[in-house]
Write a structure and sequence with these properties.
With 425 residues, the protein is of the alpha+beta class. It is built from seven helices and 21 strands. The chain has helices at residues 6-23, 42-48, 192-197, 269-280, 296-301, 317-320, 399-403, and strands at 68-69, 72-75, 81-96, 103-109, 117-121, 125-132, 143-144, 170-176, 181-186, 201-207, 216-225, 308-311, 323-326, 331-337, 344-349, 354-358, 367-369, 371-375, 379-384, 390-395, 407-413. The strands form four sheets. A six-stranded mixed sheet has the order 12-11-14-19-16-17, with no helix packed on it. Strand 2 and strand 3 (81-96) form a beta hairpin. The N and C termini lie far apart (61 Å). The structure holds copper (II) ion (CU). The site of copper (II) ion (CU) has 6 residues, from loops. Residues 138, 140, 187, 189, 195, 200 line the site of copper (II) ion (CU).
Amino acid sequence: MFRPNAYFFAPVLSIILIFSSTIFPFLNLSTHGQTPATPISTQEYDKIKNCTTDPSKKPTSVEYLTYFNCGHISKDENGRTVRQFTLIVQENQKIPISYEGHIFDGWTFNGTIPGPTIRVTEGDVVRIRVINTNDNTHDHSLHTHSIHYAKNNAFSTGGYPGGTISPGRSFTYEFIAQPYGVYPYHCHVDPVADHINRGLYGMMIIDPIEPRPQMTEMAMLLNGYDLDFDLEGPTRLPTVAQIQVPQDDAGTNMTEGHDNNETNTGTNITNITNMTNMINTTHVSLPSTEEEGASEEDAAKEERVNEIYTVNGKAFDYMMNPIVLQTGKPYRIYVINMLEFDVVNSIHVHGSMFDYYAAGTNQTSDYVTDIVTLSQGDRGIMEFRYAYPGIYMFHAHQTLFTDLGWMGLFDVRGNPVNAAGIDPT
Ligand SMILES: [Cu+2]
């Protein structure tokens, strides 16, 4: 008579275990959603983050959306990742801030307003060398929000060497990146409002050690410009002919839906017509480039105000260059408000709702909304996807700001999908 024993059960048990994940999928103990056994390498993570391969680049305001400067990487004696950045302060910079000839007499970090988006990972050693060039006439500094040593306070009355950097001098700020989130950085020399409004600010992202869910990411920094009454008066929105939408080889009609072809970079006459209607029904008055006759003395008596408002530096930039998105795809926007002289700013998107993570310091959404209001220096992370193709506006929900430049368009392409991202067809 056959009597099963250990010699019988061992191979049978092995066979059952080998096939169990196929027969009983619920037994399949994958690592999905758990901390991987091998932590992601710095290089792999930087690739996911879309770190630029050219950290010395001067991104245009359109390129700024996806320009992430992750610094020069090395390891210290403790094996920690060290990221080194150089920010060069230059005054007397002539910065184009509209498509109508408005030039801002700005001060810049590395030649752009806003300065480069600095991107690091929690726990990294961050070293930022700030050089105040010889031909400048003001002291400057670098204040990074987040946790750091007191010597990095970077304000002029603090008594620390990094509090003010004189022209011709440099100072290296060093800190351990913590906690993860999205932060502004800016000059903190008095008068701070002026040093900020001149353009000395930017975004710093500290990523969590465990990467966030992967999706296409963008940076949006909300700002404004006080033109010192030199350039006031009415002006106009970009004309349809000025809107630089990529050509559509397929000639597809967005309003009727079409195949979801990711390589399709085009648009069509329907889009242009939609934009025309949108523009024609919007009343806008950017300041004119003509001198209005107000003397500087008169201007100084007035309260300081911004004459142009933008996202990422240039008025109506994303009206002229709509941001192309795909239906059903998730997107993440890091947003910071660096406006001076106005107490609040806001961002509102048409046609979709977004998960909002205040300050980006938590991986659980704080709430779902289509508008978030931000005070000066406030920031967060938006995550969203579009269900339906078409042209959608995003803008400040203060009409004064929208009319003066803070307005853009998403050009959403692809087949309609429901809110859960499932194609209903
Ligand atoms: Cu400064």
